[in-house]
Amino acid sequence: MLLTAMATILFASAIDGVGTQDAPKHLHFYMHDGYTGPKPTAVQIVNGTGQPLKGSSGGARFGDTVVMDDLLTEGPTAASRVVGHAQGFYVTASQGDPAMLLAMNVLLTEGPYDGSSLTVMGRNNIAMKERELAVDGGTGVFRMATGYVLWKTASWRGRNAVLELDAYVYVSPAGAGA
Ligand SMILES: *[C@@H]1O[C@H](CO)[C@@H](O)[C@H](O)[C@H]1NC(C)=O
Fold first, then answer.
1. Structural domain boundaries in the chain
2. Which residues line ligand 1 (CB under 6 A)?
3. Number of the ligand 1 atom closest to the C-alpha atom of 47
């Protein structure tokens, strides 16, 4: 369904000749942040030495840093079709809310966006039901993209979390026409 939607959107903008400025492309996928198992996709590389985070029961601290190469799937389960990777890191960077600075490249590996990427950066306050992060650019189909990502926790078990991401991406006509 995601791929059909993506193909429809891509076809529509191909008719225009350039990416459309008005209608954002909508991408919807799930991100699997896995600390456990034989091949963890998220690895804590710095144990923060700052104060414990507000509202954290798991001993999270200001300064904790995690690097990730999380799978992106079409549906919420790990068995669902893989559509890409979320590669980046997050740092707990707030002394108040349990908020992280998150920076990642979203590499799409399926469908019309295969090989294109989005660069996402923003503040991820995990105490909020829905967070908003910025799309700061991209490559391929997404060259010079702007936009935003609405970010929710779909489920979690221990530290392992499944995140639901809705990205709304505006592709620059200048980038698409180059
Ligand atoms: C962080 O602390 C945990 C628990 O003490 C330890 O297992 C882990 O190796 C530490 N990680 C780093 C990067 O120092």
1. 2-177
2. 44-47
3. 1
- For atom 5 of ligand 1, which residue has the closest CA? 47
* Distance in Å, CA 139 to ligand 1 centroid: 35
Residue identified by tokens 């980038």 is 175
Query: Which tokens hold the place of 150?
Result: 């609405």
Dist. CA 44 → ligand 1 center (Å): 8
Q: For 10-24, write each residue's pLDDT tens digit.
A: 444 444 444 445 799
The pair of structure tokens assigned to 131 is: 């967070």
How far apart, in whole angstroms, are the C-alpha atoms of residue 134 and residue 126? 16
- Condensed to tens digits (0 to 9), the pLDDT of residues 46-83 reads 999 998 888 777 788 999 999 999 999 999 999 999 99
**Fold classified for 2-177:** AOC barrel-like (2.40.480)
- Asked if residue 134 lies in contact with residue 161, where contact means CB atoms within 8 angstroms, the answer is no
What atom of ligand 1 comes closest to residue 46's alpha carbon? 13
CA 125, CA 178: separation in Å to the nearest integer? 37
pTM score = 0.84
